[in-house]
Amino acid sequence: DALPIYVREGAIVPKIPDDVMTLVPPAEVKDSKVKALDDRRVYEIYPGTLRGITDFEGRTVTPGVDGKSLTIGGKAARVTLRWRFGGPESVTANGQRVEVQRGADGAGWVEFAHGESSRVTWWRRGG
Questions:
Q1: Which of 70, 73, 24, 22 minimizes the C-alpha distance to 44?
Q2: Among residues 7, 30, 31, 79, which is most buried (max CB within 10 A)?
Q3: CA–CA separation, 17 vs 80, rounded Å?
């Protein structure tokens, strides 16, 4: 039931939300029970020195030199950042504090509205 994913240290992996069932535009889906791709995007952050990416829609995710920030540029979206190393204690997106959510495994994530440019910073105990 689970497919392993192997990633490089410091990877930022772009994903679509778990509940999306098709990449067909919502207007073309005839069955209302089928969840189509909407404006939500997910980026999973893995431990290590972060590496920048360009996602499938041309959105850029660029790490800061401090290793505790990201700049996201491109098309507006509802963004979820998931840290795969436990996650931060505190996060700000565009200068506004964002509540850190926690999963059963202790991993943290945040959600925020991304315009054409967003700056996200975080703080963790111990660095």
A1: 70
A2: 79
A3: 9
